[in-house]
Amino acid sequence: MGLKAGIIGCGSITKFRHAPEYKVNPYVDDIVFYDRNPERAEALAEMFGGTVALSVEDLLDDPSIQIVSDCSSNEYHHIFSTQALLNGKHVLCEKPISLTIEDAKEIIEAQKKSGKVLMVDHNQRFTRTHQKAKEMIDSGALGKVLTFKTTFGHKGPEHWGVNKSNSTWFFKKDRSRFGVAGDLGIHKIDLLHYLLNDNIEQVSAFQGALDKVDEKGHPIEVCDNIVCTLKTKQGRLGTASFSWTYYGEEDNSTIIYCEKGILKVYHSEEYQLQVIFNNGEKENYMLESIQTNDHQTNSGVIDAFIDCILFNKDPVVSGEDALASLKVIIGILEAAEINRVVTI
To answer: pLDDT at position 299, please?
Structure first.
């Protein structure tokens, strides 16, 4: 008997990632879709051969649904993920885990109480390239990590979102809260924590709504660009840039500078991972290209989530991991606002 999955929210992330990955997972038999716009749920149910729940309560109360993907907009995660866990479902929550530290803690408490799996979709940990980079760092072949820089930018959520317009909820302060920092930045903060096996402890930043306008032609209420300096607990120093205004091409690259050389991740078109040793020797790895908004591939997230449930494994990204990244993003935005260094 296979698993039955429920998906809350039928935007682009469900259409391009969650639904197709559940569809091809051999352990999942059926998908139930819910969206507050019923026609969106119906369209995806037709596309992926699933059924539609008429209300979110119907989905959460259905005892035959064992797993739930919470793909609602950010301000609802703590409501739906908490309810799903307390109703005995395993939950895969989209990032960021929530908009506040208190709400994130509420979800984590619900997970502890329920004993069910909670995984958060920080999908950068799942690429073979990032896993290989982590292996190399952990092996000590390049010595200690000293400094780093990372960036994540594309042309903006209005090109990716379900309604393809600048009325997107990503541009609304009450719904997305963090702008590009919570959309793209939080992925890279989680990645740095994962690659470096370390946590970011101090931050400073500049941010602005430099170019994006809302449906009325006014500058958006959240940042479309943010540039930060970061210091980790172990004393490593780095920079990070997050942008919705990289109009020529997407950039999702990271460079890690170590005592004995450099790791370049998603920096070259040809090689996803490049290692440059301090004696000038180079190693190039062709592993896989990273997902972009224009090039969707299987992220591996759903498969990993299902594996946790079936084989009693720890989630690759726990609620606590997601909370650690959320705290950094909140700190970065505070630093930009008060123009000072903030300790996380």
So the answer is: 72
Is the confidence at residue 45, as pLDDT, over 90?
A: yes
Q: Which two tokens stand for residue 123?
A: 């999908």
Angle 101-114/319-338 helices, nearest 10 degrees?
170
Instruction: Give the C-alpha separation, 122 to 126, whole Å.
Output: 8
Handedness of CA 290, 317, 325, 81 (dihedral sign): positive
What's 246's DSSP letter? -
CB 231 within 8 A of CB 220: no
Q: Determine contact, residues 266/272, Cβ cutoff 8 Å.
A: yes
Confidence grade of residue 290 (pLDDT, cut at 50, 70, 90): low
CA distance 46 to 58: 19
Residue 160: is its pLDDT beyond 80?
no
- Cβ-contact 313, 203 below 8 angstroms: no
Burial class (CB in 10 A: 0-12, 13-18, 19+), 225: buried
List the beta strands (DSSP E) in 97-175: 118-120, 145-153
Q: How many CB atoms lie within 10 A of CB 211?
A: 14
Does residue 291 carry a pLDDT above 70? no
Q: Is the pTM of this model over 0.85?
A: yes
Tokens at 46, concatenated: 């037709």
User: Closest Cα to residue 194, out of 244, 256, 251?
Assistant: 256
Cis omega (within 30 of 0) for bond into 26: no
pLDDT digits (tens, 9 = 90+) for 163-208: 678 989 899 998 889 999 999 999 999 999 999 999 999 999 999 9
Closest CA to 236 of 139, 306, 145, 304: 145
CA atoms in the 13 A half-sphere facing the CB of 151: 17
Task: State the Cα–Cα distance between residues 33 and 161, nearest whole angstrom.
Answer: 18
Walk me through the domains of the chain, giving residue ranges and CATH numbers: 3-116 (3.40.50.720), 125-294+323-343 (3.30.360.10)
